Inverse folding.
């Protein structure tokens, strides 16, 4: 099962004890993947479609626990695509009206299902209800990438109005959700790992949150190790390049003007570098008698390089 599937499986098991939260989550299911069917007698029924069996069971349970209504579940198999889809159906007109009025998609004094409204802000006034609504929206039409590969969270909405509503709900928890159109849909998405951790916490998917955090810690450790290795490699390359240049300069001085007229300290440093071409500055300084600090040996080697450059200019060479 994919990571996204495991998140939905965990959320499907979360049945809120509070009736208002169950109604908020049900409002998300109806708003995201529900339809209202009106027959020729003006009787209505509510259908909620999903390709996830656990989500279908969740909707069935929410309606039964909240309204004490028995629903039907229709199963449709697509042999060509090898997929199965489920529809949770509230068939009785009176039951459908009760559900629609409870989720504030229908006025309490109206019996006309054609006057169906979008998701009502009254449903998500409380923080716990906002959590429940987002939980339902993700189960209805959300997905997440495998955190081992990338960080991406999205909810697919059929209308811009619903996308804006979900984005605002996510942003109310101090996250920065964005909307992007894709074909005929609108995608509400998060891209940062820390914000995806936050949205899992908001939806109360705590097991999945811990799994994601473990992946993030491992990735950060690998990145930290890689940065240190790269830094150390760069330092080694820099040290080796500097040592090679120093040996070239000292060899040039020895072969052109010799060491006879140089100060004793420079000659000592020059001989130490020629004898230890791979040594660090600290190791070179400690090999001298008396020992010289890192800055001291670096100063002498720099003087030798400056002298070599001066001799090259005088000899008509190239710097």
């Amino acid at each position: 099962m994919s990571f996204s599937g495991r998140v939905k499986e965990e959320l499907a098991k979360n049945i809120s004890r509070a009736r208002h939260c169950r109604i908020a989550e049900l409002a998300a299911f109806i708003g995201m993947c529900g339809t209202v069917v009106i027959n020729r007698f003006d009787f209505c029924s509510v259908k909620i479609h999903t390709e996830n069996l656990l989500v279908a069971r969740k909707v069935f349970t929410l309606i039964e626990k909240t309204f004490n209504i028995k629903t039907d579940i229709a199963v449709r198999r697509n042999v060509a695509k090898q997929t199965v889809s489920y529809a949770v159906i509230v068939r009785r007109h009176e039951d459908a009206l009760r559900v629609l009025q409870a989720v504030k998609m229908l006025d309490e004094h109206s019996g006309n299902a054609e006057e169906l409204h979008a998701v009502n802000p009254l449903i998500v006034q409380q923080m716990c209800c906002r959590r429940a609504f987002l939980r339902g929206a993700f189960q209805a039409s959300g997905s997440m990438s495998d955190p081992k590969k990338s960080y991406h969270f999205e909810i697919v909405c059929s209308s811009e109005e619903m996308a804006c509503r979900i984005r605002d709900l996510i942003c109310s928890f101090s996250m920065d959700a964005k909307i992007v159109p894709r074909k005929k849909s609108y995608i509400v998405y998060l891209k940062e790992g820390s914000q995806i951790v936050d949205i899992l916490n908001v939806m109360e998917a705590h097991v999945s949150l811990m799994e994601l955090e473990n992946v993030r810690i491992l990735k950060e450790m690998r990145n930290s190790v890689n940065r240190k290795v790269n830094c150390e490699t760069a330092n080694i390359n820099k040290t080796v390049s500097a040592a090679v240049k120093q040996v070239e300069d000292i060899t040039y001085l020895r072969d052109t003007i010799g060491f006879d007229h140089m100060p004793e300290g420079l000659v000592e440093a020059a001989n130490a570098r020629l004898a230890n071409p791979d040594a660090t500055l600290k190791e070179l300084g400690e090999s001298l008698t008396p020992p010289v600090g890192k800055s001291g040996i670096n100063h002498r080697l720099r003087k030798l390089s400056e002298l070599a450059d001066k001799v090259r200019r005088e000899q008509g060479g190239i710097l």
